[in-house]
Design brief:
- The structure is a single chain.
- With about 260 residues, this protein is of the alpha/beta class.
- The protein has a single domain, classed as TIM Barrel, CATH 3.20.20.
- The chain has eight helices and eight strands.
- A five-stranded parallel β-sheet has the order 1-2-3-4-5.
């Protein structure tokens, strides 16, 4: 593993440590690329405040801190500036206007909530409703249509406890769509480390059969998890078991405008 594009900071209110500690641990672990992708602020209406995202007034500080470290450590590691973003149709264009003022280099797609979040329940809650599964997959596909995302983080986040054939139907459609759009899927190390319901082996069997490109993502919320050899070992075994097409890096390109 030479690159990790999925790294958080304290601003999201559920991560710890300093940005410098993440960088130092990445270097110690042999990473050559470290991407910061904290939970994006959203231009919510009505005074709503998310409990798991940085605030809009923290974005400039986030950008400046990452850029300072990018310059300071340029001889040691390549640091990239990104955001982990939900596709919320109501707010997405406004979000692009806001982030377009900064040299944000990439978005990771992570659909933690359906709709526009407010009044919705977390995608990771167990549910046997096929309609909820379909809604998740369709919203991810709409997001991929924007062309704004470099990969789909924890694509198996939706915790469907219903019949396997229903799960396979909708998730195979999503995998096929991601392959059509040439968007990689992330095997998420946080899910492995915390023994969550993802990675979902049903999903990765489908991804292997579909021929999706995959990328490893630390999803680090603590500095010592930016390089996680135990989770890496599990992920490598998954790649072999399901014959997955593993990428070392993804194409970031220039700033998102």
């Amino acid at each position: 593993m030479i690159a990790n594009y999925h790294t958080h900071t304290w601003r999201c209110m559920h991560a710890s440590g300093t940005e410098r500690e993440y960088v130092e641990n990445a270097i110690a672990g042999g990473l050559r690329i470290l991407g910061f992708s904290d939970h994006t602020p959203m231009p919510y209406e009505g005074g709503y405040i998310s409990k798991s995202k940085m605030r809009l007034d923290q974005l400039e500080d986030y950008v400046n801190k990452v850029l300072d470290l990018k310059e300071e450590y340029k001889q040691d590691i390549e640091i990239r500036l990104g955001l982990e973003v939900e596709y919320y149709p109501k707010y997405f264009e406004k979000l692009l206007e806001i982030t377009g003022q900064y040299p944000i280099e990439y978005f990771l797609l992570a659909q933690h909530f359906p709709g526009n979040e407010i009044g919705e329940s977390y995608s990771g809650l167990a549910c046997d409703d096929p309609g909820r599964l379909e809604r998740y997959c369709e919203q991810c596909k709409e997001a991929l249509d924007t062309g704004r995302f470099v990969y789909l983080a924890h694509p198996d986040l939706l915790h469907f406890t219903g019949e396997d054939d229903i799960y396979e139907h909708f998730m195979r459609d999503l995998c096929c769509y991601a392959k059509k759009k040439d968007v990689p899927l992330e095997i998420n190390f946080l899910g492995i480390w915390e023994k969550r319901h993802y990675p979902d082996q049903r999903f990765w069997k489908i991804a292997g059969e579909t021929g999706n490109k995959v990328i490893f993502g630390s999803d680090a919320h603590q500095p010592d998890k930016v390089w996680n050899p135990e989770a890496l070992g599990v992920a490598e075994r998954m790649v072999k078991e399901y014959h997955l097409h593993l990428l070392d890096t993804v194409d970031i390109g220039g700033s998102i405008k």
